[in-house]
Amino acid sequence: MENVENVEEDLIQNTYVMYEKRYESCQKKLDKLVLVSDRVSFLRGITFVIAGLLLLFGYQQKSPALFVLAAGFGLAFLLLVIYHGKLEEEQACLKDSQSVVKDYMARFDDGWKSFPVDGSRYLSDGFLEARDLDLFGKSSLYQYICTASTIWGQDQLALWLSLPGKGQAPDSALQIAQEMKSRQQAVAELAQKPEFCMELEAGARRLRETEYDKSRKMMDNFFQTLKVRNYFPMVYRILIRFFPLLTLTFLFSALLGIYRYLTMPLFVLLAFVQLMSAFLGFYWNNKVLSPIYQMNKTITPYRKLFQLLEQESFDSPYLRELQKTLQKNGTASAALKELEEISDSVCARHNIYAFVLYNGLFLHDYYCMERYGKWKDNYRDSLESWVKELGKAEALVSLSVICHTRKSHCLPVIVDFRRPILKASNIRHPLIKEPVAVGNDINLTHSACIITGSNMSGKTTFMRSIGINLALAYAGGFCTASNLQLSLMELCTSIRTEDNVNEGISTFYAELLRIKQMIEVSKKQVPMISLIDEIYKGTNSKDRIFAAKETIRNLSRLYTLTLVTTHDFELCDLENDLGIDAKNYHFTEHYKENRILFDYKLREGRCTTTNARYLLRMAGILK
Question: Quick one: DSSP state of residue 572?
Fold first, then answer.
């Protein structure tokens, strides 16, 4: 056993070292780019100064040669500006990649608990199992595995972790199980593409800079404007081309000296008319174009993500169907490329000098309106489906995280959905560091499982290990177990019950409501599993034992699995009750050199030890 643990620890260390090397490789590339970028920046400044000086001397000396040289250095300056921009973009991409690698390294320790996206927004009173199992919120499963940066990916992952299929009919259960298996195939394929997964994560990092609520509002506003159709009559389209053409004709005629006395005034008049029309239509144009202006910084990352998904080769049907959706109506990346160009043009109008020049010569605002209107007509019905498919891809990558950070993992096998089945080997809690997490085996062949054990021996952690791995399994992701077979079951929990002073609900009554819900679900005769921690801990021992026995009796059915932890050894007698299909398990401890030690291993049978008095002495309460 010790040899197995040592081998496992070595494998974990090797994986961590791999990420360290990748991080260092990114840093070396980044250092080189910074050095080149500094040199290009210096050259850019030199060429600008030289171009300015040559222009000045050329003007003073009336030398065409100096003007030509100035133009050459000016062109060199522009090329260096473009090259410097590309270098900065490469640096930004490397920093994003480095950030992704750093997050994977943080998952080997407790660094992941500081990740900004923790899913707290998905906690609700209608899904109390999420609080019991730490699915969402601070130090939760969501915070550990979520790699999604878009609101679509974060929402999709939360939806899949929210135990889909609760209370569904058997026919629906079959469909849901098939969907889970389909997602499993996709997750398994992505697990074999770590480079692709990291590239997708890195490409979306800049989208995480915007807060969720702000991003949601911006995207909703954008999609709302897509629904508004802008009608452009043929006369309108002719005029926005005719007036700029006529204006430029008069301008060039005046510059060439052709009837300058006539063409110059006409040019000024037409430029003035075009500019005034832009001012008069500014409010209407701005109302339509403002959402795309706000989207400017997000369009490019989305376009690159679509392109990445379109170009990758996939084998699993789920990912191929996802890719097929992105390739409908042209391709998503091509559509976003066009939108990117429109957005850049719209941004230019927010510079007062560009606004005056472009609208005075080209009716720029109206041209943007027409071009954006055409884009909406072509892609308004496709864009929302594209971003949702991207969200699914991000959620699938998140579900593959455990494969990249845990050596002990598996894809669970979804078996018979008509009856409750749970068989696990070396199942662990995914949020406990792997070197210290203890695995347990469980094969629930009885409808009720009574778990006893001393304080801090691992009862609640084991129960949460089952619940949280069920959530991962039903989402279609990897689980922290060597093997896991299960059926599709409705999961009910009563672990972290709290009172509610405002509504006059005590802790005991809150637990009663949770267990009442379990009994109501059991009446539907659908496969279900209930996890009850320290059953009826809020009342006296006599009432607790009586109520617990009756509750377990009510939940002991052919289509239910019930796991109950308790300190009341009297409940262990239910194993001998012919009316209840129950079995006892326990955790224990041992003492060494005045220390209490736990091995956190689940054993069959009832517990025979207690440690409350020892803990009281440790706390100084007893002598």
Answer: G
Is residue 623 very low, low, confident or very high in pLDDT (cuts 50, 70, 90)? low
Q: Nearest CA to 500 among 511, 489, 484, 486?
A: 511
Q: What distance in Å separates the CA atoms of residue 551 and residue 515, rounded to the nearest whole number?
A: 8
Asked if 427 and 485 touch (Cβ cutoff 8 Å), the reply is no
- Name the nearest CA neighbour of 145 among 180, 118, 163: 118
Average pLDDT over residues 563-578: 91
Extract the tokens encoding 260.
Answer: 């300058």
CA distance 531 to 236: 68
Residues making up the chain, counted from first to last: 623
* Pair 414, 488: CB distance under 8 Å: yes
Rg from Cα positions in the chain: 33
Q: Is residue 468 within 8 Å of residue 133, measured between CB atoms?
A: yes
For 512-525, give one letter per residue: b (16+ CB within 10 A) or e.
bebbeebeebbeee
Helix, coil or strand: residue 504:
coil
Structure tokens at 521: 């679900």
Q: Which of the pair, 590 or 312, is modelled with greater confidence? A: 312
One-letter-per-residue 3-state SS of 404-423? HHCCCCECCEECCCCCCCEE
Is pTM beyond 0.70? Reply is: yes
- In terms of phi and psi (left: phi > 0; alpha: psi -120 to 50; beta: otherwise), the region of 499 is beta
> How confident is the model over 139-176, as pLDDT tens digits?
999 999 999 999 999 999 999 999 765 555 555 777 88
- DSSP string computed for 198-237: HHHHHHHGGGGGS-HHHHHHHHHHHHHHHHS-----HHHH
Among 365, 361, 472, CA closest to 424: 472
| Residue 394 contacts residue 400 (beta carbons within 8 Å) | no
Q: In the structure encoding, which two tokens stand for residue 399, read together? A: 């579900």
Q: Which two tokens stand for residue 341?
A: 């160009």
Q: Which residues pair with 457 in a beta bridge?
A: none
Nearest to 278 by CA among 240, 248, 331: 240
Work out the average pLDDT over 167-192.
82
Separation between Cα atoms, residue 224 and residue 294, nearest integer Å? 14
Residues 6+ apart with CB under 8 A from 94: 26, 29, 30, 33
With residue 291 as reference, give the H or E element that holds it: helix 282-294
Contact 621, 612 (CB under 8 A): no
Query: How far apart are the C-alpha atoms of 80 and 74, rounded to whole Å?
Result: 10
The three-state DSSP-derived secondary structure of 44-69 is: HHHHHHHHHHHHHHHHHHCCHHHHHH
494 φ, ψ (degrees, to nearest 5)? -145, 85
- Minimal CA–CA distance to 447: which of 465, 471, 420, 486? 420
Q: Which two tokens stand for residue 613?
A: 């008095």
> Residues 148, 209: contact at Cβ < 8 Å?
no
- The type of residue at 585 is Y
> Is the pLDDT assigned to residue 2 strictly greater than 60?
no
Spatial distance between the Cα atoms of 226 and 379, rounded to a whole number of angstroms: 9
